[in-house]
Amino acid sequence: MEQDYINKRITELRIKKGVAEHKMSIELGHSRSYIQSISSGRSLPSMTEFLAICDYLGVTPRDFFDDDISNPPLIREAVDKLKTLSDGDLLLILTMINRLQS
Predict the structure, then answer these.
(1) The pTM is what?
(2) Burial of 2 (0-12, 13-18, 19+ CB in 10 A)
(3) What is the pLDDT along the chain (102 residues), one digit of tens a residue?
């Protein structure tokens, strides 16, 4: 894992959420420059703050470190909705996914 992975990933997920650095900082209870200092690589969040950042961004720590998931909140919402479907509907969606991937 690259040394600057955490700051790059926070930036990526923050942008996907559509929130400015200063707004995220304030909503997390910090000064306006808190997230900017993390994004620039000048500092790293504590474990407690990292978990708060994950919660704010709508991702689990596992999702945060999974490079294969570009939009974890969207994937999580889709999976949550899939859990409520019948087996027949799940098979139909799986067929559509397979068709889209080919």
Answers:
(1) 0.79
(2) exposed
(3) 688 999 999 999 999 999 999 999 999 999 999 999 999 999 999 999 999 999 999 999 999 999 888 888 889 899 999 999 999 999 999 999 999 998
